[in-house]
Amino acid sequence: MPTIGVHGVRVNRLLFADDTGLVAGNTGNMARLLEVCERWSNDVGMKFAPTKCVVLGVPIDKRDRSLRMYGVDLPSENSSLYLGLPFSRNGIDWKQLAATRTEKARKVIAMLAPLGFNSRGWAPAASARVYKAFVRPVMEYGLALYRGSPTFFQQYEAVQRLALRTLTSTPRNTSGAALMRLLQIEPMRHRAEVLNFNWSARLYTSGDA
């Protein structure tokens, strides 16, 4: 079975419940993996849905091998979601993830603001707990997997500052560092390090093969 190396581990698939992703270094190996999946599905009496499958980054007219299941050519896309994470042919699209998650967090902030997420509503400590429970987790999704440049977190930090200014009803020029210290909120890049450490620890102690 063809595999590729990812951080020292040989892989050719991502599996979670009924969500399956195949990974190959070239179209020939991908065609072999698709053949294996098709044979397996026939053996166990089930079918994949070719119309719900996508090939990342290789247009149909540029392929040197047919990529198909049950005689149906699989469509191509530049990106696709897998378990809520945007993927391109190079892996997780971190730039797209940041844009999507921060935009969703902005919408949550806008929804909470008239409900009491402001200086005339809930107490600051209560609003900080609401932020940690309902706003920050929206941005945190996927960050446990990220290890890279601190500049990546600028978009996240900007939305966190927006949330803290909203809950305190302070102007745009208010110091974000002062608000974080006052409300005991750590920077998003530090929060990501905690998530990464916790995820790594769970993976290390996991009994799953």
Shape: elongated
Radius of gyration: 22 Å
Query: Between the first and last Cα atoms, what is the distance in angstroms?
Result: 18 Å
Low-confidence stretches: none
Mean pLDDT: 92
Helix content class:
40-55%
Largest sheet: 3 strands, antiparallel
Q: How many strands appear in the DSSP assignment?
A: 11
Task: State which percent range the strand residues make up.
Answer: 5-15%
Question: Element order, helices and strands?
Answer: EEEEHEEEEEEEHHHHH
Class of secondary structure makeup: alpha+beta
The main sheet orders its strands as 9-10-11
Task: Summarize the structure in words.
The chain has 209 residues and is of the alpha+beta class. Helices cover 45% and strands 15% of the residues. It is built from six helices and eleven strands. Strands 9-10-11 form a three-stranded antiparallel β-sheet. A two-stranded antiparallel ribbon has the order 1-2. A two-stranded antiparallel sheet has the order 3-4. Strand 9 and strand 10 (85-88) form a beta hairpin. The mean pLDDT is 92.
Question: Briefly, what is this?
Answer:
This protein is of the alpha+beta class and 209 residues long.
What attributes characterize this protein structure?
209 residues; single chain; 11 strands; two-stranded antiparallel sheet; alpha+beta; 3-stranded antiparallel sheet
Task: Summarize the helices and strands and which ones pair or pack.
Elements: E1 4-6, E2 9-11, E3 13-16, E4 19-22, H1 27-44, E5 55-56, E6 68-69, E7 72-73, E8 76-77, E9 80-82, E10 85-88, E11 91-92, H2 94-112, H3 124-140, H4 154-168, H5 176-183, H6 188-205
Helix pairs in contact: 2-3, 2-4, 3-4
